[in-house]
Design goal:
This protein is α/β, with parallel strands linked by helices. The protein contains twelve helices and eight strands. The strands form two sheets. Strands 3-8-7-4-6-5 form a six-stranded parallel beta sheet, sandwiched between helices. The chain has a two-stranded parallel sheet with strand order 1-2. Strand 7, helix 9 and strand 8 form a beta-alpha-beta unit. Belongs to the DEAD box helicase family. DDX47/RRP3 subfamily.
Length: about 300
């Protein structure tokens, strides 16, 4: 939504405003007549991220613009332990409510890991996807580039995959999400932009194609499935370079995960087809990079 449309909505003095820190600061600084001086409740969802140093300037500006006398609520599945970050939210006499002191995943989530050589990572992904026909699947990648490349790769192999990452326009991100929700696309390839705050009720499987660099992000990723009492499955790919990160995840959730069953000979049957698809995907990536350079 553009700033002008939002400004008109804010001029009607709504009772509830839902915003990202950056956009809220934009309106505080640029929208005539907009003020938060009458605010009574401040709620921060995914508070550990919002209170992170990446949002320091925005959070400080918002806190200076709102009354000291207010109710403040912080919510997160993985709340930070750093008291300094909580103090920055100007909490007075805080009460902490925890569902559990441990970082946990839900009981109905079946969690697996798959130990594979890095050079055959794409082949194993295709094999696993072939093994899950009809399922609605989210595949998490570490970077925007690998998200896009993996989407190209899977499309070249006939999968209905669609990417979701920060380098796409807002319209394309919303379009991708809508297609996945409507089940016209069965595979959503995404960065951690999709690991929090999205309610997609029908996700059957989460695949950590790239292992998360922060173990707490694992909980958010696999939390996209097995929601609201439903079952679900997660599979985490672990290469020879990911062992330490994987051990941190097991330590965090206090659980040893079983190995996802595969037969190497069956997987490697796909090698030639996947290698060919990789060439096409790399070509498409170069073409996309060329278009981006022209736009600049």
């Amino acid at each position: 939504m553009d700033m002008m449309t939002q400004s008109l909505a804010l001029s009607k003095k709504p009772h509830i405003i839902i915003a990202t820190p950056g956009r809220l600061v934009d309106h505080l600084e640029n929208t005539k007549g907009f003020s938060l001086r009458a605010l009574k409740f401040l709620i921060m969802d995914e508070a550990d991220r919002i209170l992170d140093m990446d949002f320091e300037q925005e959070v400080d500006k918002i806190l200076k613009a709102i009354p000291r006398e207010r109710n403040t609520y912080l919510y997160s599945a993985t709340m930070t332990q750093k008291v300094q970050k909580l103090q920055r939210a100007s909490l007075a006499n805080p009460v902490k409510v925890e569902v559990s002191k441990k970082y946990q995943t839900v009981e109905k989530l079946q969690q697996y890991y798959l130990f594979i050589p890095l050079k055959h990572k794409d082949v194993y992904l295709v094999h696993v996807l072939n093994d899950l026909p009809g399922d609605s699947i989210m595949v998490f990648c570490a970077t925007c580039a690998n998200t896009q490349r993996t989407a190209f790769l899977l499309r070249n192999l006939g999968f209905t995959a669609i990417p979701l990452h920060g380098k796409l326009s807002q319209a394309k991100r919303l379009g991708a999400l809508q297609k996945f929700k409507a089940k016209s696309r069965s595979i959503l390839i995404a960065t951690d932009v999709a690991s929090r705050g999205l309610d997609i009720p029908h996700v059957d499987v989460v695949i950590n194609f790239d292992i998360p660099s922060h173990s707490k992000d694992y909980i958010h990723r696999v939390g996209r499935t097995a929601r609201a009492g439903r079952g679900g499955k997660s599979i985490t790919f672990v290469t020879q370079y990911d062992v330490e990160l994987y051990q941190k995840i097991e330590s965090l959730i206090d659980k040893k995960l079983p190995l996802y069953p595969t037969v190497t000979e069956e997987v490697m049957v796909l090698l030639d087809r996947v290698t060919e698809a990789q060439l096409f995907a790399n070509k498409e990536m170069k073409e996309l990079e060329g278009k981006d350079k022209k736009r600049r």
